[in-house]
Structure formats: C-alpha cells, structure tokens
Amino acid sequence: MRYTRRAITILTLTTLALTGCSVEKDGGDGGTDASAQCGSGKEFLIGMSQANNAEPYRQVMNDDVSTAAKAVSGFKVVVSDAAQDNSKQVADVENFLSQGINLLIISPNEAKPLTAVVKKAYDKGIPVIVLDRKVEGDAYTAFIGGDNVAIGKAAGEYYAKTLLPQGGKVVEISGLPGSTPAAERAQGFREGIASNPKIEIVATQTAEWLREKGQSVMDAMLKAQPDIDAVYAHNDPMAEGAYLAAKAAGKESAIKFTGIDALPVPSGGIKAVEQGRLQATFQYATGGREAIDLAKKILVDCSKDVPKSTTLGTTQITKDNAAQVYTELGGKQ
Amino acid sequence: MNSPNPTTVAASPPETPPRRGAIRLPKDRHAIVDNFFRFQSLFGLVAVFVIAIAVSPSRNGENVFLSSGNLANIVRAVSEIGIIAVGMTFVILIGGIDLSVGAVLGLAAVGSATLMVDSGLGIVPTVLIVLFIGTAFGATQGAIVARLGIQSFIVTLAGLQAARGIARMWSGGLGIPIAYGDGPQEAPEAFSLLSGSINGVLPVPALIFLAIGVGALLVLRSTAFARHVYAIGGNEKAARLSGVPVRRVRVTVFAISGLLAALAGIIHAGQLNQGSPNDGAGYELDAIAAVVIGGTSLAGGSGSMGGTIAGALLLGILNNILALNNIDANVQLVVKGLVIVAAAALQRLRPRIA
C-alpha cells in the first residue's frame, strides 16, 4: 500500500510540478531565409497540407493542386496527410517549414488549432493560401473556398423551376449535424425553393455524409413517407445511397434524386448523373487549380496584390452537360 | 540408474526471472545477446537516428534533420504519445492493455477548455480537476478489471466509448476554442505556455515528457510497487501467493495510465488552443506501438520504461524523416507497420534463458 501510494505520488507530483512551472513563451525562431526571391525561371517548393486524404473530395483537391502545378515550370508540390488529426497537421506544417518551402497551401482540419502554426509560417514571410476551411484571424495571404449557401440556393432554385415546377414532396438527407456545410446547404436550399410554395420538405434526416447511412435512412423514410417526389441530399454519396434504397423498394423511377459535390472521379456524382441515377448535382469546387494560379501570381509574377478572399462559384450538372464537365474537370475515365 | 541425471537439474539455481535494474555485466555470449535484445529499442533508436542524418535532405548546406528547430519539432510532436505510452507501459507490464487513453485525452482536453473558458476557473484548479477525472476514470476501469475479473481489453474498450460519450456531452459535440486573456470566456495567458518553449529551443511538452519519463523510470527501477508489477505480469498466481496485493496494484496501474492520459490531454488543449471531443482518436494504438517497439512483451512481465521512451522517440524520428523526404503518406503507414512487426519479431527471437 505504502509503495503503491509512493509510485502514484511521485508521478502525480512530477505532473503537478511541471504543469505549474512557468517558462518563457515561444517567440518564434526568427527565421531569416524565409522564401526565396520571386521571379521566373526559379525552382519553388510548395507544401500542400491536407486535413484528411481519406475523403474523396480532399483526394481530388490534392490531384487538382498537383495537376495544375505540373503545368507551371519550376513548381514542385509535396503533399502531407494529417489523417483528421490537428496535432499531426501542426507537425506536418512544421516539417514543411524545416524543409524550407516557398509557399504553403493548407486545407485545415479545424480552424482554431491550426491558426498558430499558419501564423508562424506567414510571419516567417512564407505566403500561405488557405483552402476550403478557414483559420482564425488574418495571418494568411489568401483564402479560397466555395459558398455552401449559394450552392444550396442553386439546388433549391433548380427544384423550384426545373425539377418540380408543379410542386411536390421532398425529403432532405443532411450532412453531419453541427458541421457548417450541412447547415449552410440546408439554409440555402430553403431560400432557393421559397419561390415555389407548392414544394414541401416533408422530412429531414441526417446520414452524416455517408453513402451507407443514406441508404438506411432512405429505407426508413420510404416506409414513413409513401409518396416522395424527390430527395435532396447534401452530398452525392448520400444521394446514391438513397437511390439504392429506392431501387430495392422498386420506387427508383418514381423519385428524383439530386446531390452536391460533383467530384470528377468514377465513383463521383457527375458519373451518377451521366448514368441517370441522379437528376442533377452541384459542383463544390476544390479550389486546387485556383490555389496554384494564385501561387504562380505570387511566386513567378511577383504580384503583391492578390485577393485576400476568393469565393468559388458552382456549376449545375445535369445529363446535358455531365460528360463535358467531367472532361473539363480532368476526370479519369 | 539409467534415468537422466536428476540432480543436475535440481542443482542448477533457478534464474531470477524478470530482469531489471542495473545492467548486468555480460559474462558470456548469452548475456551479450540478451543485453542486445533487452536494449533493442535503444539500438534501434540510435540506428534510426544515424540513418535519418544520412538520408536527410540538406538546405543551404545544413542537415535539415539535425537542425535544432527540426529536432525540437520531433520531441514536441512525440511528447503526448510518449506520456501516454509511459502509462501504457505499466498496464502492459501487468499483462493488461488500456484502449481508453486516446478518449481520456479527448475528455481531458474538453475538460481543460470548458473549465477555463466556460467556468472561468484558474489553471491550478483546472489542472487538478482534470487530472483527478483522468485518475478516477483509470482507477474505475482498474477496479472493474480487478474486482470483476473482466479482461482489460473489454473494460477499456467500453471505457473508450464512455469517455468519448462524456466528452461529447460535455462539449456539445463541438470543439471548444480557447482564447487567452483576462476577460470572461478567456483562459489565463499562462496556459498558452504549453505551446511555447524554453529559450526558444526545448518545447514545454517535451520537457514534461522528459520529466514524466525519468519519474517513471525511477518508479520502475526502485520501488516495491514495480516489483509487484513485474511479478503480476510474470505469474499472477505466484505473485498473489507470495503476498503481492494484486488488486490494489491493478487499480493503481490503470489509475496511473488515466492520470497520464489526462495530462497529455491538458497539453493537447494548450498546444492546439482548443479542446475537441474527438481529440486523441487512435492515439492508444500509437502508444501501444511505442511500447511494443520498446521491447515490452504484450504478455506482460518483461519490458522496460527506457525501452518505451526510446520507442516513442524512434516513431517520432521515423515520422519526421519520412516526411522530410516527402515519402507518400500511404507508404509512410506501410513503413511504420513494418517497423512495429520487426520490433515484435525481434522479441520473439529473444533467447529464453534455460
């Protein structure tokens, strides 16, 4: 007993002594050789810090960055994957700084935890382009991202004018509760359908962005709502899941499905539209190409005047333009 | 008459089982080999360090890996896992496992943020409460393992779920940002020191890891508690019969693991300026990896704290040098898997002393 106590006491005391001791705050290590001089005909190393490669959207973002960078001579891109871990992403950025990158592109996992390390890079004189998700404050060079409210609104207007002009019953399959894209895609949709009072949202269920949950949620809704006219899903995988459930119930031709994201990959929404499972999808651009365009302006053209914030528009994809958009976005066959 | 000579067997003194404490002088080849296996993680650490220097990219003629900034990044990045792994070593030494540590880290991070930002508590009460929660959580798991005789894998798997659930309920499912200042809804400025460093070189989390590691090394080297831990891991029945308070040691070991996971959570919140209920997901596996690479047997009873510390550092250096060389993230995962298997395989090859 005494010894047991002693063991835990030693560890507790060290723990407490340490958390109580005060030290000087890190003032940065005063990097001197921040980024190489800009100009053409030079080699530039660009660090791309990705939040989570396991999401198809983010994989496409990486591909867009890499593909666009290949077209610029002198650009070399290295990509890191934080696997959804804020700590790992901080370490990833620090590794980039050790390597002496000339520009940082980051799609942060979460805003607050990444703010400090992004500021550290920015304060060292390294241009930072923030993609899709923001960081706090303004210690970055530029932000590029989509507007989820606008995308939801575009979807809603499509329902009001094209898909259900005579009105009808819509079920909404929403993204992860608490996530901003889910809230914004829901809000925008309601604004979009407001012009057609005959459209009614009869049920909203979450499927947490996941295809398999979209399927099981739709299963349940088909039983509760026998006469659904359309399914508005916050992303393409959930729309595809809902389609599978309807197909199992023999109702897939009576119901119209739409999604959001429109990734130019074989498993993405554009192909689903082309093959007739979805009526439409709305592009949520990755910003990858735009980021490299901006990087070129900063590094090669020596432009000091880049827009602090760029909002990307959306493209509506229906059967008419699916094949064409797929090719335009560099989709692999 | 023709039977094999029984007296020789009986005469040979029984080898004192788990070895710890001072390094035995190698008296013969067996001892040399044995010492190699005992300190495999140290050799591994040195080897990986040397390789890292050799394959490091250089920048302006300077070895990037060896730059003080980079070395500081490595120890900073590894310190949370390292602290958890120290606690995990005790648990694994008694033949158990603690899967709840990552979730307890998340719970502690949420607790730190909530108590300081929402409840307006100072640093000292916050740290005390959070460490108490972690210790109590661990002790409860230990008590269930010890009293009900359920395998720790199951108990801490349940604990993982429960701790995540509590963290999500406490935070409302979202990360709680920590802003610093004197006003309401702000944490004391001093808490941000956890993301700072001493003289701009040694990161504070690394210092804490170092101190915890040394503390645990001393505990494991020179206390009766440590002898009990090894005894239980080696042969629980024998330990009980020779008067080791098995249940109490069990509870203590899990309490230590919970305490250290909570400490890592406090550091996590301080480093990232946020407490999120999803923090620390998968950290238990990294900590187990560090312990295994450190040469501690998952069967319990044999292993060392120095090994674990070396194992954690080895993993950190490996992560760093792969990243510095821009190895594809997926390939990095495969390499880490191979290293873990190699370390475990070395342990299997370790000669048993007859």
UniProtKB/TrEMBL annotation, chain A:
Q: Does the keyword Signal apply?
A: yes
**InterPro entries xrefs:** Peripla_BP_I, SBP_2_dom
Instruction: List the source organism.
Output: Micromonospora luteifusca
Signal as UniProt keyword = yes
Which coarse location class applies to the principal site listed for this UniProt protein?
other
What protein am I looking at? Ribose transport system substrate-binding protein
Keyword set for this entry? Signal
Instruction: List residues of the Periplasmic binding protein domain.
Output: 46-299
Automatic annotation (TrEMBL), chain B:
Q: Which region ranges are annotated with the description Disordered?
A: 1-22
* Membrane topology field: Multi-pass membrane protein
Cellular localisation: Cell membrane
Principal location class: membrane
The membrane spanning regions, by residue number, are: 36-54, 74-94, 123-150, 200-220, 249-269, 281-299
Q: Which UniProt keywords apply?
A: Cell inner membrane, Cell membrane, Membrane, Transmembrane, Transmembrane helix, Transport
Q: From start to end residue, where is composition biased (Polar residues)? A: 1-10
This protein's record includes keyword Manganese: no
Tell whether Membrane is among the UniProt keywords: yes
Instruction: Kindly give the Pfam families that the UniProt entry links to this protein.
Output: BPD_transp_2
**Protein name listed in UniProt:** Ribose transport system permease protein
